[in-house]
Amino acid sequence: MNKEYKTIREVVGPLMLVDRVENVKYDELVEIKQANGEKRIGRVLEIDGDAALVQLFETSQGLKIFDAKATFQGHGIELGVSRDMLGRVFDGMGRPKDDGPDIIAEKRLDINGAPMNPVARDYPAEFIQTGISAIDGLNTLVRGQKLPVFSGSGLPHAQLAAQIARQAKVLDNSEDFAVVFAAIGITFEEADYFIKDFRKTGAIERAVLFMNYANDPAVERIATPRMAITCAEYLAYELGMHVLVILTDITNYAESLREVSAARKEVPGRRGYPGYLYTDLASLYERAGRIRGKKGSITQIPILSMPEDDITHPIPDLTGYITEGQIILSRDLNMRGIRPPIDVLPSLSRLKDKGIGDGKTREDHADTMNQLFSAYARGKDAKELAVILGDAALSDIDKIYAQFAEAFEERYINQGFQTNRSIEETLRIGWELLSILPKSELKRVKETYIEKYLPSPRENNEEA
């Protein structure tokens, strides 16, 4: 039986100090019970000799320390998991918030997870279709990958997150696929949007939602992504499902980490964030992947809004070091009505070459991707030159490239948040755009692919 301690010495804000404790562990769960029967939950932040520093999950207002008892539970925060979690909505601590019954747990898992042996990791190599051309065609997502989305304040990353969650799938219909969606520090309006969108489209049937609101305690915000990833690990490694984990917004998570660090009076690092921010983010991101001998996989799309659109800010900067690429949203494209406003040139998926090609997407995918990148980059340069020197300064071929860049943004990137494109449709649109260029300019595509896939001008006119 767990000991009860009546040695609570001090409470300052969300922090509580308990004296003369024995055999207490870091991150251990604590229950605080008052004389009137009211209960509060906290976790151990720090241990110094026989003193334990506890952080409360809720406000300390009204807590009377002279008659309160602290009971250390002997374990960290746990999540009860079951297949029945699919189709349900939970709060940031894993409690049902959809008026449904409590989950009958098949097992209880520590939300901090177990270390994954690097030798047991399998290399990501299978394609995941998001239905978004700018990702599928040019910055392909691969099973087991960590591919973050870098956004900015006011950009439609919430709509993009909902679209990916709604449309993502593996091409092999025999494989089980699920989405675990964690909303971190969002408003009631955003939460309502996500829940309604999932229910309206039927995507909720294969999804598990964790909702943490902006007015919830900071420590709950830190637990929410770990709850989601723990659920994903159960679905992937116990039930053999391919799971896509979407975490939005990681910036809110990091702000809570900074808040807790400041409350503990730790020495701040860059911009006031704790010095262990890199390690902490890695403890989330590195739980994605595939394990040899296990059928399932975990793929992560963390979404973060860059403060002041600064990509050198500690949160996107450190995220970029840990993950395998990034999808960047453009404020300029958004202002011009391009939806989703994905800036494909600075975006990157470092594992895209492993998930495309014959037997995965299509044989011509790599060549068309390289040619589209090259042509769009040259077209953007031509348009910038025209702004400075005027159209008269452009050569005939530069004018064609400028025309290609405009068509590429309008037809390839600008598909809206409701359009779901198959990889075949994305590749077809890519070839139609390449037909704008003279054949002599298609230097990155094999001649056999040009003969097989390049539409004739007549076919293009009929399509238009």
Automatic annotation (TrEMBL):
Molecular function via GO: ATP binding; proton-transporting ATP synthase activity, rotational mechanism
Any Pfam family:
ATP-synt_ab
| Protein keywords | ATP synthesis, Hydrogen ion transport, Ion transport, Transport
ATPase F1/V1/A1 complex alpha/beta subunit nucleotide-binding domain mapped to chain residues: 131-349
Does this UniProt record's set of keywords contain Lipid metabolism? no
Keyword Ion transport in the entry? The reply is: yes
Q: Which NCBIfam families match?
A: PRK04196.1
According to UniProt, the name of this protein is V-type ATP synthase beta chain
* Source organism: Pseudoramibacter alactolyticus ATCC 23263
